[in-house]
Amino acid sequence: MTDTRMRQGRAALAFSFLVQGVAFALLVTRIPAIQDRYGISDALLPAFLAAVPVLAGVGSVVTERVVRRVAPSLVLRWAQPVVLLALLAVGVGQGMIQVALALAVFGLAVGALDASMNMLGVSLQRAYGRSIMLGFHAAYSLGGIAGASLAWLGAHGGWALGVSYAPVVGVLLPLALVGSRWYVDAAAGPAVEAGGTGSGRGVAFAVLLPFCLVMSFAYIGDSTVSNWSAKYLQDVLGSSEQTATLPYNVYMVMTLLGRTLGDLGVRRFGAAAVVRAGAVLAAAGFALVAGAPGVAAGMAGFTLLGLGLCVLVPQTFAAAGRIGFEKGGPAGSDAAVARLNVFNYVGFLVGSPLVGVIGDAWSYRGAMLVPMVLVLVTVGYARSFEGTGGRYGDGHERARAADVGRDGHRL
To answer: What parts of the sequence cross the membrane (predicted)?
Structure first.
């Protein structure tokens, strides 16, 4: 496979991550408008919200089985349009049943999309022989910022949901379909020759357990920020309503910055060092938020959280995929990524209710200490993120040899 083909595949996959960031942000940031449009009661809303990650977990499990027969690129090629069309259906539906069906389809398709995107990302990173996974997730963060900004415009302008969603879907859907022509299933190329057994054997859950825990803890932290940062700044630290909207924006910008630079850090210092540093920064951010005497200190804490948490998820996918590949070749890598992806949704489901229950029963300052402790646990698992040779590249000399394409050029 030529270096040009690999670069095209990398760019196409990055665009897919960006589109997913836009779509997901447009959904979650307009939840109040969705609730108003369909008359969903406060009592029923949690069930609607929980259904999306639960069904996404189902979609991820199904994808693990599907990719045994078809390439992950094919799953991604069709899952992304379904996600976009389901988002549009949420905006233009006429009743409770329609929105419930649209959210169900959205959830199932998101699970397939997240799993297949990360499968392709892991296989491309393996073919490149150096860290590029954080760059894909940086594209997702950029899409999230763009989607949240578009949602703000829609809310500020008083636009109907359909009016907000239709132009975005109309632009992104054809671009995603065109871009999907350049997806690369790199696992089937030189990387297989470089080190996978190709046996397709599954990976024991005990081997994946550290990564599953890290994934869950990272998303508990992330959902804490997305669901509670505004309330915390306003109710606990006494900010204005306008100022209370800033922490999540700052968090997203820092996430984008950290992921943009993160691959360089992995190449220079190794995956374990980056994960360890990210966990320590995130824990310091939660500690600062919990003890913040005022708004400025709270904002500084959320800034640290963005820089710290942002590296954990991409590195967890990369490490689990690498171990899956060592155990069972490309099929083992895909299975490991799909199983790990389920814990993305576990953390998302647990995080917000956990903080809410502790906040109501004790205090919201105390509640911030719980995700702090969980991300600190990640430090103890940091060694699991290395290969046999210590730093990221040291244990992958055979994979680095695959950098030389069949035409003799570097990828």
So the answer is: 12-31, 43-62, 74-93, 132-153, 159-183, 203-221, 273-296, 302-325, 337-358
* All residues at 6 or more sequence positions from 65 whose CB lies less than 8 Å from its CB, including other chains: none
C-beta of residue 143 within 8 angstroms of C-beta of residue 20 = yes
Q: What is the DSSP string of 327-394?
A: HHHHHHHHHHHHHHHHHHHHHHHHHHHHHHHHHHHT-HHHHTHHHHHHHHHHHHTGGGGS-TTSSTTT
Q: Distances from the Cα of 118 to the Cαs of 216, 283, 340, in angstroms?
A: 16, 26, 10
Q: What is the pLDDT of residue 201?
A: 55
pTM: 0.89
What confidence category does residue 3 fall into, taking pLDDT thresholds of 50, 70 and 90?
Answer: confident
Note the pLDDT of residue 400.
41
Residue 408: pLDDT above 50?
no
Rounded Cα gap, residues 222 and 331, in angstroms: 30
Q: Are the CB atoms for 344 and 20 separated by under 8 Å?
A: no
Q: Which is nearest to 30 in space by CA: 163, 187, 124?
A: 163
Q: How far apart are CA 74 and CA 277, in angstroms?
A: 36
- Per DSSP, the three-state class of 404 is strand
